[in-house]
C-alpha cells in the first residue's frame, strides 16, 4: 500500500524492472569481458563460419547468385575481353595467368583456393584489431559469413580486398597520424587508376575528413564545434555549386550516376533491392544532396529490405555495424591515434553512398572493404603501435 501512495519500497525488495535491467547489464558486461579475453576462440569461430559458408553456399544459392565470378572465370580461361568495362577487364587480366597456369576452371575449387589467403588476411586483422564486445563479435561473425560468400572468388571484389590490405597495414603500423592518412591516400591511387576510377573521390575525402578532425578537435567549446560543422556543410554545398559552374558535364554525371546506372541495367523504382533517387530534382545541388542524404540513411539502416524475410540477416548485420561504428566513432573522437582510421573509413562510406545502385552491390563492396572498415570497428588503444592515444602525436 505504501507504493500506491508514492512512498518508498521496502528495503531489500528491488523493483522488478530495475532488477531485470541490472541482470541484463551484468550479462552484457560478462559477455563483453569474455569476448575480450578469449581472442583465440573468437578467431576459431570466425574461421569456422568462413569454412561453413564456403562449403554450403553453392548448395543453398542458385548459380546466378555468383554471375560475376562465373563470367570473370570463364573469360579468364578464354582470354576474351569483348564488351568488358575497365574493372572487369582488369579482373580478367589479373586472374588469367592463374587460371592458365593451373588449368582450374571450377568456381567451387577457386573459392576454396582463395579462402586460404582471404581468411589469413581476415584473421590477421581480427587478431590485431580484436572484437572488444558482444556487438563487435556479432559484426565480426557477419563479416566472416559475407567474405567467403561475396569476396573469396575470382572477381573484382577479391582484388579490391587485396588492394585495401596494404592500406590497413599502414593504419596499423605507421606511427604518425598525418603519415597514415597520406600513405593510405597514396595507396588508393592504383585502385582509382587501374580498377575503379571513382575511387579518386576517396582520396580527396580522406584528406577532407582528416583536416576536419584536426580542426574539430581543436575547438573545445560546444558552440565553436557547432560552427565548425555548419561551416563545413556550407563549404560542401558551395563546392558542389562550384563544380556545377566550372564543369557542368561532370557535375551532371555525378548527380545522376545512380539513376543512369540503374537505367542501364534495366531497373526501375519497382525493382527489388534497388536504391533509386527519391527526389525528382536530382540535377540540382539541393536535389542531389537531398537524395544523397536519404540514400545514406537507407543504406546505413536498410529497413526496406524487411519485406523479404530472407534479407533479415543482412538488415540485422547492417544495423548492428552502423550502430557499433557510430558508437566507436563517438567514443574515439578525442583519441588522436584513430584520426586516420576513421578518415579512411568515412571516406569509403561517403564515397559509396554516392554510387551504390542497389543493396546487393553495397553488401558486396562493404565486405570487400573489410580491411579498412574493421579497423574502425575493432581497434582498441593497445593495437596502435608506439602511440600515446590520449595525447597529440605531433601531426
Task: Supply the key terms.
globular, 395 residues, mainly alpha, disordered C terminus, disordered N terminus
Structure, described:
The chain is built from 17 helices and no strands. It has helices at 16-37, 39-60, 67-78, 86-102, 107-128, 134-151, 156-173, 177-194, 200-218, 222-246, 248-255, 257-264, 285-300, 312-331, 339-355, 359-368, 370-378. 32% of the residues are buried. The model is unreliable at 1-10 and 381-395 (pLDDT under 50).
List the helices and strands and how they pair.
Layout: H1 16-37, H2 39-60, H3 67-78, H4 86-102, H5 107-128, H6 134-151, H7 156-173, H8 177-194, H9 200-218, H10 222-246, H11 248-255, H12 257-264, H13 285-300, H14 312-331, H15 339-355, H16 359-368, H17 370-378
Helix pairs in contact: 2-5, 2-6, 3-4, 5-6, 5-7, 5-17, 6-14, 6-16, 6-17, 7-8, 7-16, 7-17, 8-9, 8-15, 9-10, 9-15, 10-11, 15-17
Low-confidence stretches: 1-10, 381-395
SS strand fraction: under 5%
Average pLDDT rating: 83
Sheet with the most strands? none
User: Structural class of the helices, strands and pairings?
Assistant: mainly alpha
Choose one word for the global shape.
globular
Order of helices and strands: HHHHHHHHHHHHHHHHH
Task: Describe the structure concisely for a colleague.
With 395 residues, the chain is an all-alpha fold. The chain is 71% helix and 0% strand.
Amino acid at each position: 500500500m505504501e507504493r500506491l501512495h508514492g512512498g518508498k519500497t521496502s528495503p531489500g525488495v528491488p523493483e522488478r524492472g530495475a532488477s531485470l535491467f541490472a541482470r541484463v547489464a551484468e550479462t552484457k558486461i560478462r559477455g563483453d569481458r569474455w569476448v575480450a579475453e578469449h581472442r583465440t576462440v573468437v578467431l576459431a569461430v570466425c574461421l569456422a563460419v568462413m569454412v561453413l559458408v564456403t562449403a554450403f553456399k553453392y548448395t543453398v544459392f542458385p548459380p546466378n547468385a555468383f554471375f560475376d565470378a562465373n563470367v570473370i572465370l570463364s573469360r579468364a580461361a578464354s582470354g576474351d575481353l569483348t564488351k568488358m568495362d575497365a574493372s572487369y577487364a582488369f579482373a580478367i587480366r589479373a586472374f588469367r595467368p592463374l587460371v592458365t597456369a593451373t588449368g582450374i576452371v571450377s568456381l567451387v575449387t577457386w573459392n576454396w583456393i582463395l579462402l586460404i589467403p582471404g581468411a589469413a588476411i581476415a584473421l590477421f586483422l581480427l587478431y590485431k584489431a580484436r572484437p572488444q564486445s558482444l556487438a563487435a563479435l556479432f559484426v565480426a561473425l557477419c563479416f566472416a559469413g559475407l567474405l567467403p560468400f561475396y569476396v573469396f572468388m575470382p572477381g573484382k571484389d577479391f582484388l579490391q580486398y587485396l588492394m585495401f590490405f596494404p592500406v590497413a597495414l599502414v593504419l596499423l603500423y605507421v606511427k604518425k597520424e598525418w603519415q597514415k592518412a597520406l600513405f593510405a591516400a597514396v595507396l588508393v591511387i592504383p585502385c582509382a587508376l587501374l580498377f575503379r576510377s571513382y575511387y579518386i573521390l576517396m582520396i580527396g575525402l580522406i584528406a577532407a575528413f582528416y583536416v576536419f578532425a584536426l580542426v574539430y578537435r581543436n575547438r573545445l567549446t560546444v558552440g565553436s564545434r557547432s560552427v565548425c560543422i555548419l561551416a563545413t556543410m556550407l563549404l560542401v554545398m558551395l563546392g558542389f555549386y562550384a563544380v556545377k559552374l566550372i564543369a557542368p558535364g561532370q557535375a551532371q554525371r555525378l548527380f545522376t550516376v545512380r539513376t543512369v546506372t540503374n537505367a542501364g541495367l534495366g531497373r526501375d523504382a519497382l525493382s527489388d533491392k534497388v536504391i533509386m533517387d527519391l527526389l525528382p530534382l536530382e540535377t540540382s545541388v539541393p536535389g542531389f544532396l537531398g537524395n544523397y542524404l536519404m540514400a545514406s540513411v537507407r543504406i546505413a539502416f536498410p529497413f526496406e529490405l524487411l519485406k523479404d524475410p530472407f534479407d533479415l540477416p543482412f538488415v540485422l548485420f547492417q544495423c548492428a555495424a552502423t550502430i557499433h561504428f557510430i558508437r566507436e566513432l563517438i567514443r574515439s573522437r578525442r583519441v588522436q591515434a584513430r584520426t586516420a582510421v576513421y578518415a579512411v573509413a568515412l571516406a569509403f562510406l561517403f564515397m559509396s553512398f554516392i554510387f551504390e545502385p542497389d543493396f546487393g552491390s553495397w553488401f558486396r563492396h562493404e565486405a570487400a572493404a573489410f580491411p579498412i572498415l574493421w579497423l574502425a570497428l575493432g581497434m582498441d588503444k593497445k593495437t596502435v603501435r608506439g602511440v600515446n592515444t590520449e595525447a597529440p602525436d605531433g601531426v
